[in-house]
């Protein structure tokens, strides 16, 4: 029973006096007095910016309840209605009290306006108890001169105020704001990894691993995030992580640890969220951002700001959600650094050091195209979420008793899909909430059936938080409508008017929504509401699309899209619909049909129609040619549907070669891909290049039998990555080719791989190219060769090894019993004469050699000659490459002489002055070639050829040298001694037209020569044995044409000379008409224009026959007819004229 004083105070309280409902209010006070903690939590939810610890609180519990109700009531009608709904929904309210509460205050009819207390009035933001907020605004007015001592005193008081405010903010609050308080909260530090090699970490490859078994309250080298080596200028760190990895949680964790004195290097810490800064439409100065939007000093804001400027190296500003910025920021700005600007521009100035030079800036963002205003020198840290030990530690913290802990961990270990989902911290919490409900009374292994997908985890979470035996369909759909409307308009923060009071009460009761103070400008504050996580908003939006009768199939299908993670430059920010298609796909699972039927209050056939529309949309997407990011997203969606037919169709639609280039991939991404590949029949090649990869990513590929080729090329792959890969390799039974190139693995990572490779006897190719491996690592790799009977290629190029190690490597290779044919490529290894002697001795004892490549070493004349002389005994059937070894001219001749005796060699490379000669001996006809490229040899150089002629004529190319007319003439004399050729290329040798005419004499001395192709414009000169003579792109004067005919008259023929793309003179038709009498062997003259003409010569043995003349399109006029006819009359056997 309430005493008389309390009763009198209750009858006179402002609420009962204004409402005239003394009895109802008294009942409400008596009800809430039984659970003061619940009331305090609700007041804190609806009034997040109000100081509830002021000293004016009454010591009497009943009076405290009345005071708290009065505070809620003064916030306005909407807040009061939402509170009354929470009372009726969450507390055990008798029916005779619930009906009048809702009828009187639940619909706004009984709420009179107070003229002295408007809805717009808002309390001050969080302040230290007893501190008073000044009302003046801190603009950009000039700072008055301050006494240094007074300035320091003001600054000291402000810094203490900052710390006290942060302590109050996180007092009795977990780092997961807005989550249900009924469940224990634990912070487990996620995996962090620097993306730069210069990261100041002592741990392996820059990964912050820490000790997951550390006591709660200790953290994992968070201080290292700010241990950059830069001593001046901006210190900027960007923390990248996908949705749900814990970026916002880490930002608040940093703020909390600073408040507790654990980040002692910083005097002040400011935390801003871009989702809130987006609500500010006007321009701000930096003092306004710090003081009006965050926390104002008690006095002297100008002096305090001056102190912050002078001590900027002790200031940390954290900006959470850089990817959520509404408006883009230009990388170039013309305004002054202290001029008012948008919040993003102020962020840019802080990053570039034009504001608070020397301060520390940290931003969090999802991966994607970051704003152009971010400096390129910013350090990047990747957040990878939880690994196995962290998942187990989180589960053990979540469940209070040991039997529940052990049961939950055992359930996760047996459910691989659920285990992989728990790599994302946000999903790990959702899974724990579901297990909290499912474990009691259920048999082991039930989670595999009830929690197979991310979507069904969210469904079970909603059922867990809802009253048992009751599905609040109307409230769920109402929350879904709010969520979808927000996503479509880019809104993640809602005001009280955006959400109906019953829906708000439902969201608050289940811990699905959180509240906080929102500053919309200097001096303007209000309470904002948001879903506890963006993914939760997307889930409820998907629920609305699937269950609302107002959404038809076409509208539903339009939301099933795949967004590339390569964000276009034209986009200001990443979208808000990352998970919406995945949730839609998950709700399309047959397992969700009963739940959706209850939610929509429709039969399952109606739900099945909508689910079929989603599946059909995904099937259409699977038929398209998709980029790597979209393939990964499609795999996530298809896996959520639990439709084997769709999974098989998607798997078969993937190309044989699947590249993934330059986008971030997590363990969950590869797990989704592996799940789909399990439905594929054909083998697939996976190529990952330039992708930031979670260190334990390869573990997701365990048991994937469809991967035939697997290649990773990224400097971000280190020893932890190699260790994870070594655990998966033995389970991939179809893997034939493995590549790990361009990484930064060391001896530790190689040791893990060496232990795994003997368990992969099916491997045919292994590449550890460009890993800077040292001697010990290379020898360690080579030791496994006897265990790999099918291995055809081992590539260790661009390693940092000595010559002795290389020779040890070749010795192991040649003595390996499983090696039947060997290719030896020791390029640019600084081998000398002694090394090649040892190598020759090894190769003589080894298997057949397909190729020996010693290019780019220091063999010089002696070493090259030794190798060339040994070539016949080594039985090299493919290529011997001795190019770029410092050969002299005399050495080249000796080497060519030595190699000419090798009967098995198909191809030989040698060079002089860094220019290469390629000799190919008797391969397939289309490959028979002797090529000499750009090596200005003297005219006296000749080739020694084998005594027996090759099976098929070779081709010789001397293009791009400096033979000139003299060299061409000398070559014409030597050609008969070379035997038959397929072709001779003399292009780009500076030959004149006269020199080309002299080459036509070769038609009479070289039986194989049938075709000369000459172009003056491109300096093309080619003699071939297949066809006709061709002169192109040159000017032929009458004298030149006559000389050409005289030369060709001596050739045995038959010949066809084509003059194409020429510049013939106007008198050329008359000259060509006279050719019949000057050259009796000319059988036909075909002049189509002054640019194209053809001359046909009969053979010297052929008897004379009829001649033919064609002069068309060559500009003949009436004056040319008489001389043309006179010249043609000299031809006695002219049979045709056109």
Automatic annotation (TrEMBL):
Gene Ontology MF terms in the entry: ATP binding
Ranges for domain NACHT: 235-368
Region Disordered, annotated ranges: 110-150
Entry-linked InterPro entries: LRR_dom_sf (IPR032675), NACHT_NTPase (IPR007111), NLRC5_atypical_Card (IPR041210), NLRP_HD2 (IPR041267), P-loop_NTPase (IPR027417)
UniProt keyword list: ATP-binding, Cytoplasm, Immunity, Innate immunity, Leucine-rich repeat, Nucleotide-binding, Repeat
Example GO biological process: positive regulation of transcription by RNA polymerase II
Cell location: Cytoplasm
GO cellular component, one term: cytosol
SUPFAM superfamilies noted in UniProt: P-loop containing nucleoside triphosphate hydrolases, RNI-like
Domain of life: Eukaryota
Family statement: Belongs to the NLRP family.
Function: Probable regulator of the NF-kappa-B and type I interferon signaling pathways. May also regulate the type II interferon signaling pathway. Plays a role in homeostatic control of innate immunity and in antiviral defense mechanisms.
Subunit structure: Interacts with CHUK and IKBKB; prevents CHUK and IKBKB phosphorylation and inhibits their kinase activity. Interacts with RIGI and IFIH1; blocks the interaction of MAVS to RIGI.
Listed name of the protein: Protein NLRC5
Record organism: Eschrichtius robustus (California gray whale)
Lineage: Eukaryota, Metazoa, Chordata, Craniata, Vertebrata
């Amino acid at each position: 029973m309430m005493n008389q004083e309390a009763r009198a105070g209750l009858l006179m309280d402002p609420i009962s006096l204004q409402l005239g409902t003394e009895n109802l209010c008294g009942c409400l006070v008596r009800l809430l007095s039984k659970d003061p903690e619940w009331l305090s939590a609700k007041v804190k939810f609806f009034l997040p910016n109000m100081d509830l610890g002021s000293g004016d609180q009454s010591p009497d519990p009943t009076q405290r309840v009345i005071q708290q109700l009065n505070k809620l009531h003064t916030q306005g009608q909407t807040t009061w209605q939402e509170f009354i709904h929470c009372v009726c929904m969450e507390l055990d309210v008798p029916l005779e009290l619930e009906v009048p509460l809702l009828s009187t205050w639940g619909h706004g009819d009984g709420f009179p306006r107070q003229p002295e207390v408007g809805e717009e009035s808002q309390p001050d933001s969080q302040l230290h108890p007893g501190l008073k907020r000044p009302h003046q605004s801190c603009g950009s007015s000039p700072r008055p001169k301050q006494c240094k001592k007074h300035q320091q005193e003001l600054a000291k008081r402000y810094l203490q105020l900052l710390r006290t405010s942060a302590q109050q903010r996180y007092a009795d609050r977990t780092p997961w704001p807005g989550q249900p308080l009924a469940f224990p909260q634990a912070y487990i530090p996620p995996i962090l990894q620097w993306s730069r090699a210069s990261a100041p970490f002592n741990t392996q490859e820059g990964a912050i691993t820490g000790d997951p078994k550390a006591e709660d309250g200790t953290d994992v080298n968070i201080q290292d995030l700010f241990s950059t080596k830069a001593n001046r200028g901006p210190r900027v760190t960007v923390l990248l992580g996908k949705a749900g990895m814990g970026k916002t949680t880490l930002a608040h964790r940093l703020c909390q640890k600073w408040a507790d004195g654990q980040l002692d290097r910083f005097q002040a810490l400011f935390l801003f969220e871009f989702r809130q800064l987006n609500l500010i439409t006007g321009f701000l100065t930096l003092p306004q951002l710090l003081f009006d939007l965050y926390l104002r000093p008690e006095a002297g804001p100008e002096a305090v700001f001056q102190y912050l400027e002078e001590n900027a190296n002790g200031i940390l500003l954290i900006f959470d959600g850089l990817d959520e910025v509404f408006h883009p920021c230009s990388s170039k700005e013309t305004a002054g650094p202290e001029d008012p600007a948008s919040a993003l521009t102020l962020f840019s100035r802080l990053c570039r050091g034009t504001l608070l030079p020397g301060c520390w800036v940290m931003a969090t963002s999802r991966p994607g195209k970051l704003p152009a205003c971010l400096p390129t020198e910013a350090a990047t840290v990747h957040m990878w979420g939880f690994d196995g030990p962290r998942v187990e530690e989180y589960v053990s913290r979540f469940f209070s008793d040991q039997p529940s802990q052990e049961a939950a961990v055992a359930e996760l270990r047996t459910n691989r899909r659920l285990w992989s989902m728990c790599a994302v911290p946000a999903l790990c919490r959702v899974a724990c909430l579901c297990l909290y409900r499912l474990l009691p009374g259920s048999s082991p292994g039930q989670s595999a059936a009830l929690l197979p997908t991310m979507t069904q985890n969210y469904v079970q979470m909603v059922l867990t938080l809802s009253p048992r035996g009751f599905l609040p369909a109307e409230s769920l759909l109402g929350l879904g409508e709010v969520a979808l409307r927000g996503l479509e308009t880019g809104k993640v923060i809602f005001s009280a008017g955006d959400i109906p009071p019953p829906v708000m009460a439902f969201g608050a009761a289940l811990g699905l929504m959180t509240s906080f103070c929102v500053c919309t400008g200097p001096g303007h504050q209000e309470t904002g509401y948001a879903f506890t996580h963006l993914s939760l908003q997307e889930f409820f939006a998907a629920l609305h699309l699937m269950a609302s009768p107002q959404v038809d199939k076409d509208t539903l299908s339009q939301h099933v899209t795949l967004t590339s993670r390569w964000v276009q430059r034209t986009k200001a920010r990443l979208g808000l619909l990352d998970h919406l298609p995945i949730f839609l796909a998950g709700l399309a699972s047959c397992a969700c049909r009963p739940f959706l039927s209850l939610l929509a209050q429709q039969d399952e056939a109606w739900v099945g129609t909508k689910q079929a529309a989603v599946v059909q949309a995904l099937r259409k997407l699977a038929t398209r040619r998709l980029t790597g990011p979209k393939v990964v997203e499609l795999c996530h969606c298809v896996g959520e549907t639990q439709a084997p037919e769709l999974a098989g169709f998607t798997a078969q639609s993937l190309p044989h070669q699947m590249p993934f280039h330059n986008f971030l991939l997590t363990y969950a991404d590869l797990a989704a891909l592996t799940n789909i590949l399990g439905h594929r029949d054909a083998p697939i090649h996976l190529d990952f290049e330039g992708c930031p990869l979670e260190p334990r990513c390869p573990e997701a590929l365990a048991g994937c039998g469809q991967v035939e080729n697997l290649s990773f090329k990224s400097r971000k792959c280190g020893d932890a990555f190699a260790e994870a890969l070594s655990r998966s390799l033995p389970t991939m039974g179809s893997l034939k080719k493995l590549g790990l190139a361009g990484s930064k693995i060391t001896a530790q990572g190689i040791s893990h791989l060496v232990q795994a490779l003997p368990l992969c006897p099916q491997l045919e190719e292994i590449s550890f190219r460009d890993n800077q491996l040292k001697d010990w690592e290379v020898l360690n790799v080579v030791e496994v060769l006897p265990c790999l009977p099918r291995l055809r290629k081992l590539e260790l190029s661009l390693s940092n090894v000595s010559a002795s190690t290389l020779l040890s490597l070749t010795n192991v290779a040649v003595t390996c019993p499983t090696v039947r044919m060997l290719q030896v490529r020791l390029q640019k290894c600084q081998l000398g004469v002694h090394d090649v002697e040892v190598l020759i001795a090894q190769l003589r004892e080894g298997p057949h050699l397909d190729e020996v490549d010693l290019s780019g070493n220091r063999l010089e004349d002696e070493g090259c000659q030794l190798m060339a002389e040994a070539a016949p005994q080594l039985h090299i059937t493919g290529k011997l490459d001795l190019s770029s070894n410092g050969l002299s001219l005399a050495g080249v001749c000796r080497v060519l002489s030595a190699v000419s005796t090798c009967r098995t060699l198909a191809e030989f490379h040698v060079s002089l002055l860094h220019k290469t000669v390629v000799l190919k001996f008797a391969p397939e006809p289309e490959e028979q070639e002797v090529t000499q490229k750009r090596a200005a040899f003297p005219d006296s150089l000749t080739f020694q050829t084998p005594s027996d002629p090759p099976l098929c004529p070779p081709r010789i190319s001397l293009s791009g040298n400096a033979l000139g007319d003299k060299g061409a003439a000398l070559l014409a004399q030597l050609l008969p001694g070379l035997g038959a050729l397929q072709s001779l290329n003399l292009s780009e040798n500076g030959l004149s037209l006269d020199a080309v005419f002299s080459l036509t004499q070769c038609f009479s001395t070289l039986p194989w020569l049938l075709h000369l192709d000459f172009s003056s414009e491109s300096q093309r000169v080619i003699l071939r044995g297949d066809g006709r003579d061709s002169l192109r792109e040159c000017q032929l004067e009458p004298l030149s044409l006559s000389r050409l005919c005289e030369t060709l008259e001596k050739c045995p023929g038959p010949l066809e000379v084509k003059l194409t793309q020429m510049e013939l003179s106007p008198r050329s038709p008359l000259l060509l008409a006279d050719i019949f009498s000057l050259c009796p062997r000319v059988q036909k003259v075909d002049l189509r224009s002054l640019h194209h003409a053809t001359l046909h010569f009969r053979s010297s043995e052929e008897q004379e026959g009829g001649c033919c003349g064609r002069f068309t399109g060559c500009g003949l006029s009436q004056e040319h007819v008489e001389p043309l006819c006179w010249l043609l009359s000299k031809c006695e056997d002219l049979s045709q004229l056109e």
